[in-house]
Structures are given as structure tokens and as C-alpha cells.
Specification:
Shape: globular
Number of strands: 0
Number of domains: 1
Helix content: over 70%
CATH class: Mainly Alpha
CATH topology: Growth Hormone, Chain: A
Strand content: under 5%
CATH architecture: Up-down Bundle
Structural class: mainly alpha
Length: 389
């Protein structure tokens, strides 16, 4: 567990840095840089797609060379140095470039890091391990928005972007000196990205179906940006938006370890359905809650519970169906499918909200989520006892 805790601390300080700005970035892009909601969705969706594409490449390369830490270091380093450049942005294109570089860093590190976590513990406690990592990670996601709210009292939004460099630098130092490399079992230097993908998908029907179900769900899901925009419509001021974002992250943190432990005990797939159902609740609240600014905090709390469960258990379920030597590629492939779907979803959701209203956008999300829940129930009946360990 030492690696899990060390990687958790790296994520804590990186998230401290990142979440200082993410809670205020959507309104900054709309209010200061003049972008539309659809453009916010396009920026976020495109940035995440870039991230997920790089996860595929870095994950496979980490399998090939049998080393994870170098990719994790490159990724965290890129994210750390990129975010302060938001202070110099004059248009949405500048903001997108910075977000893209930051997400390249996230993409480079995520699949190798998740594979490193999975290789550091046995599958029987993988849910707990990912829950611990996620919880420490999310403590930084709580501290970041709170720090941004405090800094808002003494500096403007661009100054906060610059200050975000400090916790990111601390994260890189911890990574260099305290995270231990774990060599994947039976890795081969002759393998390639496409041979790995074929090996994973060929004869592995459960994992392929899991990819499809998760992809359909991601086609309907939307990210936190739209919750913050809804909060603004409910009457939350720009300077208080970071507190709403902090509530999302508090809920995310509180549910991380419990959801991982429960997933180990009753089945990761079952807990993943619970995450999907919480998304249904939060999407429905986007329509139902009107006229009271305090509703924003309720919406944020429910949305945070959904994020906490889904992001913890999605990562924990992959190693169940994948051998150690292919896990970097598998995490990359899984994230690429989710990222591609998420890219489409954010653009469509933002477009529907701008042009047909919030109700139609939420209906779109709920339809695809319902399909995913039904499909996952069928998946559990057929494959929940399958394991490739």
C-alpha cells in the first residue's frame, strides 16, 4: 500500500493545483472570454478526448518497456507547467490550448499510473486500493476550490492561475522520490499497441462488452462544467462557484473508499450500476431544481457521489478481466472509448441546452443512461463471475 499512498499524495497536490482553476474556468471562458455553453462543452470534450487518446499510447508503451513511472512523471510534469499559462489567455482558443496540454499530461500518466496501482496489490483488494488513491486524490480536489475561494478575496482570477504552479511542483517532487516502480509480470519488449489490443479483445468477450456498455453510458453523461453553469443560473455568484465545486469534490471524496470496499465485497459491476443510477438522479435534478441558490449545493452533492462511485469502480473493474502484462494497454483502450464518447456527449449536451433547452439535453442523457443500466444488468447475469487473473 506504500505505492498507493505515495501516488495518492502525488494526485492530492496535482488536484490541489488543477481544481484551483477548474471550478472557476467554465465561467471564466463564458464571462471573460465570451464563449457559449456549446463552446465550453467543446473545449472540455476535446480536451478530455486528447487525454484519453494519450492514455491509449502511454498505457501500451508502458506495457512494452515494462516501466510505468517514467510516463507518470512526464504526465504530471506537463500538467504542472501548463496551467499557469491560463493567466495570459485572451480568447477561448488560448484557454483550449492550455487545457489541451494539461490533458496531454493527464493522458500520459493515467493508464500507466492505474496499471501501477493494479500491479501493486492483488485483485481481491483492488477496489480498496483504487478507493484509497481516489480519496487522497479528491482531498486535493476539495482543498483546491477552497483555496481558490480564499485567494479570490485578495487577487483576481488570473493571479489564481499563476499560484496553481506551487502545489503542482510539490507533486512532482513526491513522485520522483517516493513512488516505487513495479515491473509488470511477464512483459515483452516485442509487443506493439495493435498486437496488445488484438490480444485483449480476441477471445475476451466480457471486456469487449464492458467497453461497449461504458461507452454508451459516457455518450450520455456530462461533466461538472454544466453543473456549475446550472448553479450560476440558480443564483450562485462567480466568487462562490468554487465552493459549489468543492461540494462536488467533498461528496466524491466521502464515497471513494466505501464504494471501493463495497465493490470488492458484492461485485464491482453492481456498484457501477449504483453510480449510473446516481447520475440519473443528478441529471433529473438539473431540471427540477429552480429558484433557490441553495439547490446548487444539493445538486453538487449528488453529482459528486455519482462521480466518486463511477471513477473509483470503473478503474477497479478493468484488472478483473485483464492479465497484468496487458493492463497498461487495457486501461488506455478503456479510457479511449470513454473519452471519445464523453467528447461527443459534452458537445451534444451543450448544443441541446443552447438551442432546445435544458430539458431536451437531460432527456438525451437519461435515455442513454437507461440503456446502459439495462445492459449492465444483463452483463452481470452472464459474466460477473468471470475473471482473467
Amino acid at each position: 500500500m506504500r505505492n498507493i499512498v505515495a501516488l495518492g499524495l502525488v494526485s492530492f497536490f496535482t488536484d490541489f493545483s488543477t481544481e484551483m482553476i477548474l471550478g472557476i474556468l467554465p465561467l471564466f471562458v463564458v464571462t471573460n472570454l465570451g464563449a457559449s455553453r456549446a463552446m465550453v462543452g467543446a473545449i472540455e470534450g476535446s480536451a478530455e478526448l486528447i487525454s484519453y487518446a494519450f492514455r491509449m499510447v502511454s498505457g501500451s508503451l508502458s506495457d512494452k518497456i515494462g516501466k510505468r513511472k517514467i510516463f507518470v512523471l512526464i504526465g504530471y510534469g506537463l500538467s504542472t507547467i501548463s496551467k499557469p499559462f491560463l493567466a495570459m489567455s485572451t480568447g477561448w482558443v488560448d484557454a483550449f490550448i492550455v487545457r489541451a496540454v494539461d490533458r496531454i499530461g493527464k493522458g500520459a500518466r493515467t493508464a500507466p499510473r492505474d496499471a501501477l496501482i493494479a500491479d501493486s496489490v492483488s485483485d481481491s483488494i483492488s477496489g480498496k486500493a483504487f478507493g484509497i488513491h481516489r480519496t487522497i486524490d479528491q482531498m486535493g480536489a476539495i482543498a483546491g476550490p477552497v483555496a481558490a475561494f480564499a485567494l479570490f478575496q485578495v487577487m483576481d482570477i488570473r493571479g489564481i492561475f499563476v499560484v496553481s504552479l506551487i502545489p503542482g511542483f510539490i507533486a512532482v517532487i513526491i513522485l520522483i522520490f517516493f513512488v516505487k516502480e513495479i515491473v509488470p509480470k511477464a512483459h515483452s519488449k516485442t509487443i506493439t499497441l495493435f498486437s496488445n489490443m488484438r490480444a485483449i479483445i480476441k477471445g475476451n468477450k466480457p471486456f469487449t462488452l464492458l467497453l461497449i456498455i461504458s461507452g454508451v453510458f459516457s455518450l450520455g453523461s456530462f461533466n461538472y462544467s454544466f453543473v456549475l453553469l446550472k448553479s450560476s443560473e440558480l443564483g450562485i455568484s462567480e466568487s462562490t462557484i468554487p465552493i459549489v465545486y468543492a461540494v462536488i469534490n467533498v461528496s466524491h471524496t466521502v464515497i471513494g473508499i466505501p464504494s471501493g470496499i463495497i465493490a470488492d465485497r458484492i461485485g464491482k459491476e453492481k456498484v457501477l450500476i449504483a453510480g449510473y443510477m446516481l447520475f440519473v438522479v443528478s441529471a433529473t435534478l438539473m431540471i427540477l431544481l429552480i429558484g433557490n441558490l441553495y439547490y446548487a449545493f444539493l445538486l453538487a452533492a449528488v453529482f459528486g457521489l455519482y462521480i466518486g462511485i463511477s471513477e473509483t469502480v470503473q478503474r477497479a473493474v478493468v484488472p478483473k478481466y485483464i492479465q497484468s502484462k496487458f493492463r497498461g494497454t487495457a486501461f488506455g483502450l478503456y479510457n479511449l472509448v470513454l473519452g471519445s464518447s464523453f467528447f461527443v456527449s459534452n458537445i451534444v449536451f451543450g448544443f441541446l441546452w443552447d438551442n432546445t433547452g435544458l430539458s431536451m439535453a437531460v432527456t438525451y442523457s437519461l435515455t442513454l443512461t437507461s440503456i446502459s443500466i439495462i445492459a449492465m444488468l444483463v452483463f452481470i447475469k452472464k459474466f460477473s463471475m468471470t475473471s482473467f487473473q
